[in-house]
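User: I'm curious whether this sequence folds into something compact or stays loose and floppy. Could you predict its structure so I can see for myself?
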Amino acid sequence: MALYDSLGTTYAQTRRPDPRIGARIHAALDGMADVINVGAGAGSYEPDTTVLAVEPSRVMVDQRPVGTAPVVQGVAERLPVRDGGADAVMALLTVHHWGDLAAGVRELRRVARRRIVVLTWDQVVFRERFWLVREYLPEAVAFDDARAVPVEALAELLGGARVEAVPVPHDCTDGFGAAYWRRPEAYLDPEVRAGISLCAQTGEDVIGPGLSRLAGDLASGRWRRRHAELLGLEEIDVGYRLLVSSV
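Assistant: Here's the prediction. I'll summarize afterward.
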């Protein structure tokens, strides 16, 4: 069974594309006549030029809106696409789930004629700047330490890449790990956590004590006193990175 057959049941509700992040992704794909989305999930951020989506989870495939690009079940390490099958290949917040990163990147390079666009995160920056994992969920960040892909290593596998910071808006509509940095109450919602692999894969029994501390700090006002400087910010950089590689 694919990972997101169990984790992705509410994905379409909590992981809605954010237009500001989408604008960055689409700018990176500008001029590409056709695009393949690898690890496509429910189809977030796919440009109109997407000709194929590849996704291992049937649960995720079934949540794709009507009218999106054709989809096949498959994994990054064995893409069912001919050599040079599209101008560009995109892979968004997915490489950390791949069983064989090097094999997956080789497939991206095999299929893309002109460009590869990957959205991931810098674990060192994430760990240092994001209050949730630093102060409340160290067990979850330890889990991410084991699966996160160093940005420099990924860029090298891609044969070189331009690396762009992707700030997270305070009202981000895509509920990934740090999306609720200015809305801490959201992390107490089980449905929200179900859409965040950092939480869902670590397990409720492991992160429960940290969430209890967060609930207490929110109730007492301690969290807002400690993080008052965040409340006036429109966006922050907590390590999300867009890698753009020319083939």
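Summary: The mean pLDDT is 93. The two ends are 33 Å apart (CA to CA).
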